[in-house]
Amino acid sequence: MWRLFLQIVAGILGIWLAARYVPGVEFVGNWQALVLAGVILGLINFFIKPILKVITLPLRIITFGLFGLVINMLMVWMVSLVFSELIFPEQIIQKIVSLFLTSLVVWGINFILIKWMPTK
Prior knowledge:
By secondary structure, the protein is mainly alpha-helical. The protein has one domain (2-116).
């Protein structure tokens, strides 16, 4: 339960920080929509991401774990499809770079919260 809470907090903080500091990422909704988008991202990271990690284990082994970045980008992209308030650029190359940087921000917040916060 504590880990789920940390995933949700990481999703909210990750989207907020990415919208503020990653070029090309905008969040045009109010704070309630931001919290809801973060909650959805946290739930996706908690429930769906472990399943995808098991399914893509051979790809992750072949790429020495770098395919995990693609999985993280997929999670952020899924949230951006559901929430029209989370806007990425229209150009495909800039969109991929923005998705990559946003997934790095969310991963970093997840890493900090889960590794350094005491578990209950």
